[in-house]
Amino acid sequence: MERARELSAPAPKGPDNPADAVNAALDLSQARQRPQADADVRGSDPLMQEPGDQEGPYARWPVSGVTIAGKGRGVVAARPLAAGSVTYQAEPWIAVVADSFLRTVCAHCFKKTENDADLSHSCPACSAVGYCSAECQAAATGLHERECASVAAVVRMTAGKADSRGARMLIRALAQRSLDLEGGPPAADRTVFSDIEMLEDHLNDIPPPKQKEFLSIAAGVGGLPVAAGVGKVELVRLVAALRCNSQGLVDVENQRRGDVLIAPADFNHSWSVASSYL
Fold it and tell me: Are residues 72 and 142 in the same domain?
């Protein structure tokens, strides 16, 4: 209940100047970074296992969460691993279908239709998401009804001329936040919006042109119904956190069907291409 009250408190009015919004987000990002006081404890060892990790999200898996000097969170093998071993498996907190697959990949289970046929079910209000079955559509209703109008607006604005994944990912995160606040079922085991707020956003390391891109996404979504009560600064930081921690969802044909966010998001720090596989 305390968490719900904290999340539902009115957001402070954001800066009117876009540059001020980015600078304020940078300040917030720096303030939220994990303390580096453990550097002396680590000494020359760049890895330090998190205390109590044996009871954390990796308790049943052959890996451990670590803090990596200069990078943040990561994962290392806790014992020798055989080739082909499954090291970790989790349900995504949120996921969005790639623009090129909106008509052929289910927005709930991510199955692709045969022969690239159009999906059998779609949202009658926005026509921006489709499903492979009535069961998948029903399962997604609680989340989609909170994002429907905002997703429809983004799809209309981009009109197929620009990649809308970043905006749709932010919209879905805000919709899941709303669902969390209302006491809805969690999107993934033990993961709630406050866990997502703790993800590293690395805003201080992102070049100014990319910061402006994040600001543009935040500004566009900030005027939509799903972002009501969320300040500009927090939106910019959330865009960066989603971009830094999300992964591509890739099928066996190496086609990127969409993007997912799994929390904790410790597996993508050292990958040249961060991907989860169907």
Answer: no
Structure tokens at 170: 């932010």
Q: Whole-prediction pTM value?
A: 0.75
Decide if 18 is inside a domain: no
Per residue in 67-119, pLDDT tens? 777 666 778 888 898 888 888 877 888 999 999 999 999 999 999 999 999 99
Q: Is the pLDDT of residue 260 over 50?
A: yes
Residue 39 lies in a domain: yes
Give the tens place of pLDDT for each residue, 179-188: 888 887 766 6
16 Cβ neighbours under 8 A, 6+ residues apart: none
Residues listed for the chain:
278
Looking at the structure, do residues 67 and 108 belong to the same domain, yes or no? no
Structure tokens at 193: 């919006």
CA distances to 2, 8, 67, 102, 224 from 180, rounded to whole Å, are 13, 10, 28, 26, 19
Which structural domain, as residue segments, surrounds residue 47?
35-89
* Of the candidates 114, 103, 96, 106, the residue with the CA atom closest to the CA atom of residue 133: 106
How much of the chain exceeds pLDDT 70, in percent? 71
Give the total number of structural domains in the chain.
Answer: 2
User: Would residue 4 count as lying in a domain?
Assistant: no
